[in-house]
Design goal:
The protein has 265 residues and is α+β, with helices and mostly antiparallel strands. It contains eleven helices and four strands; from the N terminus they run αααααββαββααααα. A four-stranded antiparallel beta sheet has the order 1-2-4-3. A hairpin with a 4-residue loop joins strand 3 and strand 4. The longest helix has 20 residues. It is elongated and about 110 Å long.
Length: 265
């Protein structure tokens, strides 16, 4: 009996030959495919009876023509991309939560890769509805999962065996984090200024000392009027930056300029 590969016309509809994923069929594929270890310095074994070709996945069903047919069949079920989402910024505004996963293609004993179940959830903390207390508490709970430079939360889930389970678990963790951040425990009322995550100039000893100095030097003036002055605001920003970001050439230089301007030196 003549193999199909030898009697197949040149203009055959390949999507009818390989309509779906299947093992390699040597009598169907009209190609001189060889694979395996060359015996005694010869050439790799022929495709007929070649177990190496049968046991690995192939993509003979995913030819450009087949992919085009699949896309045409799916078009009636698709909708046009919303015209309002014409920039990445708008996409981030209306869809802030991003779920990232990876598909792997490899020749192995199984087509499934254990690393494909891993899911990364990313969202900017500024896109969440949080007040100052909830934001600071969430950052404390997240630890190294929060990047201060990009303002992005990254939650990685890989405990569950399936990707969908890890997606659901990541969304559950984000929900729990959100609600826990809004809670105010009784012991939080006992926090002192030294326990705060960030330095705040308002109400600090530095602010009180500066107000006392300005009142003595400039002869009075309301507290709100003094705090609204541009040189006082510049001093406030320099002290806050120096305390929160540490000493560096830029922070020290900014602090020096603010003090000289404030003291009119």
């Amino acid at each position: 009996m003549t193999p199909r590969s030898e009697s197949m016309p040149l203009d055959v509809d390949w999507t009818a030959v390989y309509p779906a994923a299947a093992s390699f069929k040597p009598n169907t594929v009209p190609l001189p495919v060889r694979m395996g270890f060359p015996v005694k310095g010869g050439i790799p074994p022929d495709k007929k009876g070649n177990l190496e070709l049968i046991k690995i996945p192939n993509f003979l069903h995913l030819t450009p023509t087949a992919i085009k047919k699949h896309c045409e069949a799916l078009k009636p079920f698709c909708t046009e991309w919303p015209s309002a989402l014409d920039t990445d910024a708008k996409c981030d505004q209306f869809f802030p939560v991003k779920l990232e996963s990876t598909d792997y293609v490899s020749a192995s004993l199984s087509i499934r890769n254990p690393a494909a179940r891993v899911v990364h959830l990313k969202v900017k903390i500024s896109s969440l509805n949080l007040d100052d207390h909830a934001r600071k508490k969430m950052i404390k709970l997240l630890g190294d999962r929060y990047c201060k430079e990009t303002d992005v939360i990254t939650i990685k889930t890989d405990n569950c065996p399936l990707r969908q389970q890890n997606k659901d678990y990541a969304m559950y963790l984000l929900t729990v984090l959100y609600h826990e951040s809004w809670k105010t425990e009784a012991w939080e009322a006992e926090k002192t200024r030294a326990d705060m995550e960030e330095y705040s100039w308002d109400g600090s000893r530095s602010q009180k000392n500066l107000l006392h100095l300005l009142e003595r030097r400039d002869g009075g003036g309301g507290e709100e009027e003094l705090l609204g002055r541009s040189d006082v605001q510049e001093y406030k920003e320099s002290v806050t930056r120096l305390k929160n970001h540490g000493e560096s050439e830029s922070t020290v230089e900014q602090y020096k300029d603010a003090v000289k301007k404030l003291l009119q030196l």
